[in-house]
Specification:
The protein is an alpha/beta fold. It contains 10 helices and 15 strands. The chain has helices at residues 16-27, 49-59, 74-78, 86-95, 112-115, 129-138, 158-165, 204-211, 286-301, 320-329; strands spanning 5-8, 32-35, 40-45, 68-70, 100-105, 120-124, 142-143, 171-174, 185-188, 195-198, 243-246, 261-265, 279-282, 307-311, 331-332. The strands form 2 sheets. It has a 10-stranded mixed β-sheet with strand order 1-8-2-3-7-4-6-5-9-10, sandwiched between helices. Strand 2 (32-35) and strand 3 (40-45) form a beta hairpin. Helix 1 crosses helix 6. It is globular. Residues 223-227 have low confidence and may be disordered. Bound molecules: threonylcarbamoyladenylate and magnesium ion. Threonylcarbamoyladenylate binds at residues 36, 38-39, 41, 65-68, 99, 101, 103, 115, 118, 120-122, 144-146, 183-184, 186, 197-198, 229-232.
Length: 334
């Protein structure tokens, strides 16, 4: 059993002390959780296969699910790609640092275990200064999945990491809540046209605009020959409490509700429904809803409820990433 330490550090002007300590832990092959703009990541040196195996063990993650490699800047990232074409360069320079992961052919420096044995690697440069200083401090890229136990709710705060991984991670760098709150958009640039494997903060429309070409998105047909993102298995990110989703507030009317239920919605709920949830999270602004989604889900999950009822967000691309995560965390109400 590892004794997990937590160090406070400033997100924008990180103090050299905690960065140096965390870098030393990583260089010795240890695990350090750190904040990105999306969620907290569970980091290990990406070029150290043994250290990366420690990530899979700590999370209880299947070895078939590849990890994202985090680099300090565009020039650093491109050294881990076996091919760096114009599309990749355009997107990297436009969106990095930022919540976009680019799947490209993998360079030999990235071990098999990171890529789950595949020919590609997902690369990204994280937004917060603290994350980039950490990578610079180590001098090596960091493989980092979300810092939750596999299939549990992603962490947007240090306390979420501690709740899931206490005794399994050497150090947590606590730089406060993640500002975006949903995982990066994953774009496969080895497909032609490029394909969004996981919807996220940067929408397919925005990517298509910058590229000046269409971008595939939506479910990958099982027989298409495309390798879907393994993280896109239908149920993922799930709370422990039974959680169902309904398409709109109107469906609450004749819903057989247990005494102790929690409610999550993204538009006001009509008073006439006379709902009496034990706890509710209702946030109509898409950016705020995204930022607070995993925290709200963890909060509802901690209350010993019989049921969580989630009302799906309204139509519109600004809700797509949240809708995707909500669907993975819930089952449809029959
Ligand atoms: O925002 C994020 O992306 C966060 C922060 C920490 O960077 N990371 C994250 O990692 O969400 P993880 O492991 O929880 O999700 C990564 C997703 C998974 O669905 C994985 O299957 C997919 O990206 N992925 C990673 N490498 C890939 C590759 N080479 N090809 C296809 N999918 C890949
Ligand atoms: Mg994850």
């Amino acid at each position: 059993m590892i004794r997990t330490r937590v160090l406070l550090v400033d997100r924008d002007e990180p103090e050299p002390g905690p960065i140096a300590e965390a870098a030393a832990v990583l260089r010795r092959g240890g695990l350090v959780a750190f904040a990105t703009e999306t969620v907290y990541g569970l980091g290990a040196v990406a070029t150290d296969a043994d250290a990366v195996r420690g990530i899979f063990e700590a999370k209880g993650r299947p070895s078939t699910n590849p990890l994202i490699v985090h680099a300090a800047d565009v020039d650093h990232a491109r050294t881990f790609a076996a091919r760096w074409d114009d599309r990749t360069d355009l997107l990297a320079r436009r969106f990095w640092p930022g919540p976009l992961t680019l799947v490209v052919p993998r360079a030999a420096a990235i071990p098999d275990v990171v890529a789950a044995g595949g020919p590609t690697v997902g690369l990204r440069v994280p937004g917060p200064t603290v994350a980039r200083r950490l990578i610079e401090g180590v001098g090596l890229p960091l493989a980092a999945p979300s810092a939750n136990r596999s299939n549990h709710v992603s962490p947007t705060r240090a306390e979420h990491v501690l709740a899931d991984l206490d005794g399994r991670v050497h150090l947590i760098l606590d730089s406060g809540p993640a500002t975006v709150g949903l995982e990066s958009t994953v774009l496969d640039l080895t497909a032609d046209p490029p394909r969004v494997l996981r919807p996220g903060p940067i929408s397919p429309g925005v990517l298509a605009n910058v590229l000046g070409m269409g971008v595939d998105h939506g479910p990958v047909a099982a027989d298409s020959g495309h390798l879907a993102s393994p993280g896109l298995l239908a149920v993922h990110y799930a709370p422990r409490t039974r959680a169902v989703r309904i398409p709109s507030p109107a469906h609450l009317a004749d819903f057989d509700r247990p005494a102790r239920f929690g409610l999550m919605a993204f538009e006001p709920i009509p008073d006439a429904l006379r709902l009496k949830p034990v706890a509710a999270s209702i946030e109509p602004d898409p950016a705020v809803a995204a930022r607070d989604f995993y925290r709200a889900l963890r909060d509802l999950d901690s209350r010993g409820l019989d049921l969580i009822i989630a009302v799906e967000p309204p139509e519109g691309p600004e809700w797509d990433a949240l809708r995707d995560r909500l669907r993975r965390a819930t089952t449809p109400h029959a």
